[in-house]
Every structure is written in structure tokens, then in C-alpha cells.
Give the backbone structure.
Amino acid sequence: MASKPIKKVINKAVQLAPSSLKEKAKDKVKEHAVEKVEDHVQSKADQVSDRMADAKEENAEQVHGQAEKAKEKVQNVLLSVRDKLENVKDAGEEFQQKLSSNEDTKIKGVKNLKSVQEIKSSQNIKSSTQIKSSTEIKSSTDIKTLGS
């Protein structure tokens, strides 16, 4: 209720005031209104800026979290691939060993056949004089036993 008498006093003062004072008052009111609007717009811009900064931080945290999860998944996949490759390598080595151990029992291939130079000729065959006679063959008495 106190505001009504104040309004009446202000209205009377405005009516009785000279026009130069009225102009100055209008200018002051305009300046004050412009400052208020600028302050209001600035505060709204600051609020929007703060909200955007908060949203940016939240998004950065989410992106970082998602990147960590993706990194872990890729790491797990790479580890499983490495394990599988080790198994394949081990199986290949076992297969290679089996093949190399079976080479002795295999049928001889072209590489294992003797060439013409390796075949004995008639000159390499022992003659009758080179064959041991019965006197050169050891008897059972000539063989050393384990105890002697």
C-alpha cells in the first residue's frame, strides 16, 4: 500500500517538472533500461554457456568411457586371435613333426633314388681274391666274452 502514495508523488513531480528535467529523466530511464536488458541478455548467455560447458564435459566423459570399453573389447579380440594363432602354429608344428617322422616309412621319391654315378660298376665289385676265406673267419673261440 505504500507504493500508491509514492506513485502519486512521482506522477505529481513529473507533471510539475520542467521539460528539460523530463528529457534528462527519459534519457536516464532509457540508459537504465538498456543496461538492464544488456545485463539480462548477458546472464542468459552465461547460463547457456555454462550449460553447454557442462554438456561438453558429460559428453567427453561418455566418449572417454565408450572409448575405454571399445579398447577393452578390441584388446580381448586381439588376445583371442593370438591364442587361436598359437594353437594353429602348434598344430602346424605337430603336423610337420608327424610328416618328418613318417619320411622313413614312406615310399622313396625321386629325390631318394640313386643317380647313375652312385651305382657300383663292375670295377667296384669284389673279386674272388678279396672275399674272406674260411681261415680268416673268426671262430667262436676267437670271440671275446664279457668276463675276459
